[in-house]
Write a structure and sequence with these properties.
The chain has helices spanning 29-41, 57-65, 85-104, 108-116, 151-169, 182-189, 214-217, and strands spanning 77-81, 127-134, 173-177, 195-204. By secondary structure, the protein is of the alpha+beta class.
């Protein structure tokens, strides 16, 4: 029996018990407008307050992320809450090495612009979550991934996107740190064999709020027109 929002088990259709899941919802124009606003305000946050998050909120957000679709219902996401100072330090050191290499790959004005960017919230974010894909999972029996095995990783990205939006509805910012050494971070966290690092996330209350991406404000790269990314065949 599927779970309800409170973590219990909701009754199946036709059971005679009232449930908000008995019929598909009709989303109002007001809700649609709010959802559009949510998408506009979903930002990749880099500057966090050190204020702790309320107890149980992280688990609640991860429960919402767990409702994401996955290939073959494999649910391959594995969330690792990184709380150890020693392991956080190893991740930060990995970032510093990777960031230095990235900086060295640019020159001139682009290198100067890169050096000015704020690319990680590792020092201040109260919550660190490493998100892995369990590539050895047998759940789902391989459905939908024989010809596209990368669908497991794509499913994990879907869960991260859901987590991002869910966090934003609670006023929580999320930053995805991708300038890392995946093998080093994986080793530092001592996870199961067959787990592949997909994302290292920082969560916390933002120091500042913006509806436009930081990279646009820093004149690194503006958002293109969606019409330039739609093809018809």
């Amino acid at each position: 029996m599927p779970a309800d929002k409170k973590g219990g088990r909701r009754p199946p259709l036709g059971s005679g018990r009232a449930s908000p899941y008995d019929r598909p919802p009709v989303f109002s124009k007001a809700f649609q407008a709010q959802f559009d606003t949510l998408l506009h305000w979903r930002r990749d946050v880099r500057r966090f307050l050190r204020t702790p998050l309320p107890e149980g909120l992280v688990e609640e957000l991860l429960s919402q992320a767990h409702m994401s679709p996955s290939v073959g219902n494999s649910q391959p996401w594995r969330f690792v809450l990184v709380e150890s100072e020693e392991r956080r330090r190893a991740v930060r050191e990995s970032f510093l090495r990777a960031n230095a290499k990235a900086l060295a790959s640019y020159d001139g004005e682009r290198a100067a612009a890169y050096a000015r960017l704020k690319l990680a919230g590792l020092d201040d974010a109260p919550v660190h979550i490493a998100v892995f894909c369990d590539e050895a999972t047998g759940q789902g029996f391989g459905l939908g991934r024989h010809t596209m095995p990368e669908m497991l990783a794509y499913s994990v990205v879907c869960a991260i996107s859901t987590l991002w939006l869910a966090a934003r509805t609670r006023g929580i910012g999320l930053g995805w740190v991708s300038i890392l050494e995946p093998e080093v971070v994986t080793e530092a966290l001592q996870v199961e064999r067959g787990w592949r690092l997909i994302a290292y996330l920082c969560l916390g209350y933002p120091q500042e709020e913006h509806s436009d991406p930081e990279l646009e404000r820093a004149h690194w790269q503006s958002r293109g027109d969606v019409l330039d990314r739609i093809l018809k065949r």
